[in-house]
Structure formats: C-alpha cells, structure tokens
Write a structure and sequence with these properties.
about 0% strand, about 60 residues, mainly alpha
C-alpha cells in the first residue's frame, strides 16, 4: 500500500521522532486533512528538530 511508504522511508532512513513526523505530514498533506494543516504540523516538527540541534551544539538561529 502506498500509505505504508512514509513509514518505510522513516524506518529505512533511521529518522528520529521529529524528522519522521516531518516526512509523515509532508507526505500526507491534503490527503487526510487540509494540506495547510499538515504542512504547518510538518513545520512545527521541523522547528522542534532545529531547536534540539541548536541546543545540542550551543548555537542559536542565525549564528550560521
């Protein structure tokens, strides 16, 4: 089933929770809910991942 594809990609690529959700929401955008809602959710999880990486590296957005 094509609906299983995002989960296969997430597993095969070894994505963490945040990045896995980005893939999930982008891939389903407009299929289950409104596309805008799905894309906003993907952006939210991408923001979580960016914040986690910045905290890990001790950097802030815009530091380059």
């Amino acid at each position: 089933r094509s609906s299983d594809l995002p989960y296969e990609v997430i597993r095969d690529w070894g994505l963490n929770f945040n990045l896995g959700n980005v893939v999930k929401y982008v891939s389903r955008a407009g299929r289950k809910d409104a596309a805008l809602a799905d894309l906003k959710k993907a952006r939210e999880y991408l923001g979580f991942e960016i914040a986690a990486l910045e905290a890990e590296r001790g950097t802030m957005e815009g530091d380059g």
